[in-house]
Amino acid sequence: MRNKKDAIVLSLGYSFKQLKEVQESTVFCLIPPCPNFVENYNYKTRRVSLRLGWEF
Q1: Which terminus of the chain has a lower count of CB atoms within 10 Å, N or C?
Q2: By the 8 A CB rule, do 35 and 28 touch?
Q3: How far apart are alpha carbons 27 and 34 in whole angstroms?
Q4: Would you kindly state where each structural domain of the chain is located, as residue ranges?
Q5: What does the H/E/C string look like for the chain?
Q6: With a threshold of 0.85, does the pTM exceed it?
Q7: At a CB cut-off of 8 Å and minimum separation 6, what does 47 contact?
Q8: Measured between alpha carbons, how far apart are the two ends of the chain, in Å?
């Protein structure tokens, strides 16, 4: 007996993540004003996913 519930399953997805970071550091100096160093980091990730299956 054949099962009539067979199906092809398709799933698509997309995700985006972002992380921002600021790092400040002070450098040792003898005569004020001492300079501050600022570093900016901006990380971005993108993902596309595809799932294909057979359900039985």
Answers
A1: N
A2: no
A3: 7
A4: 7-55
A5: CCCCCCEEEEEEEEEEEEEEEEEEEECCCCCCCCCEEEEEEEEEEEEEEEEEEEEC
A6: no
A7: 13, 14, 15, 16
A8: 13
